[in-house]
Design a protein that fits this description.
The chain has four helices and 17 strands. The protein is globular and about 50 Å long. It has helices spanning 29-36, 76-88, 174-183, 221-233, and strands at 3-10, 13-19, 46-52, 60-66, 97-102, 105-113, 116-120, 142-146, 149-157, 161-166, 193-201, 204-211, 215-217, 240-245, 248-253, 262-266, 268-275. By secondary structure, it is of the alpha+beta class. β11 (193-201) and β12 form a beta hairpin. The protein starts with a strand and ends in a 7-residue tail after the last strand.
């Protein structure tokens, strides 16, 4: 038995996409990890399954798994790739607003052209319980101890948990240690994506993200949304911001509380393939 897949990426955040519209997703954790291996498998940051919708108001459902086999609630670059994949499969028209369902709820997508998608990511959620994050209540920032270093962070959920840390130098050696430490910090009961953000000006940010379950990635769509949301809530950026990540740039638009946040960026196809080792894992 072989497993057909599409390899895609959104500004360097790479995915394996599986068509599960006619047959259910059936990979276990060991198989996901084997497929994710960049030497003996295909390699990816996240695995995406395209499935029939559970919610009747949505056209499709997509599942998300990290490279270590753990499930994820949301993936900003991933949802753009799902949208582009569905458009190429003839299931989505250009310019049409369509609701699709993620593990953390529905999002609205619009395919602008075959390789560019905009997504309504919903309203950022700052309540620590939504991440979940151990804190007394909502605050603009929190002090957290990471390996003996006191960090001042913002915390927000974009369907998955994010810690946002403003820095002056994205290449400071300490980040290589702090990122992995923060991602598994005990105050985040389900782990957290650690985003280090540098402000260029009110309309331009630079960002690096250490993702829970995947490590340092070239891009993190929800991380870009989270960084902009935290700084926007503090009044430090305008309502339309370019977020520059190692793999490329995203446009993030958020008017503020009570309004949805929109993410716009590319989605690219890399190749189609068949994984032959699906039955050889156990």
């Amino acid at each position: 038995m072989s497993l057909a897949f599409s390899k895609m990426h959104g500004i360097g955040n790479d995915f394996v996409v599986l068509d599960c519209r006619q047959q259910p997703f059936a990979l276990d954790v060991a198989q996901i990890r084997a497929l994710a291996d960049r030497h003996t498998g295909v390699g990816f940051d996240q695995l995406l399954s395209v499935e029939p919708a559970r919610d009747p108001s949505c056209a499709f459902y997509y599942g998300i798994w990290n490279a270590d086999g753990t499930p994820s609630g949301q993936c900003g670059n991933g949802v753009r790739c799902v949208a582009a994949w569905l458009h190429r499969a003839g299931a989505l028209a250009l310019g049409e607003d369509v609701r699709i369902e993620s593990p953390s709820g529905a999002v609205t997508i619009r395919v602008l052209d075959p390789h560019r998608v905009t997504v309504d990511m919903g309203e950022p959620q700052f309540d620590p319980a939504r991440l979940p994050f151990q804190a007394d209540g909502v605050a603009a920032d929190y002090v957290i101890d990471a390996d003996g270093e006191a960090l001042r962070i913002g915390a927000v959920s974009m369907g998955n948990p994010h810690a946002v840390i403003p820095v002056h130098d994205l290449h400071a050696p300490a980040l290589e240690r702090v990122g992995p430490t923060l991602s598994v910090h005990p105050r985040f009961a389900e782990g957290v994506n650690a985003g280090f953000v540098q402000s260029v000006d009110r309309g331009h940010l630079r960002l690096r993200v250490h993702e829970r379950g995947a490590g340092w990635t070239l891009a993190c769509g929800t991380g870009a949304c989270a960084a902009m949301a935290v700084l926007r809530a503090r009044g430090e950026v305008d309502e339309s911001v370019t977020v520059e990540l190692p793999g490329g740039a995203l446009q993030i638009d958020w008017a503020g509380p009570g309004q949805p946040l929109w993410m716009t960026g590319p989605a690219a196809f890399v190749f189609e393939g068949e994984w032959l080792a699906v039955d050889a894992i156990h």
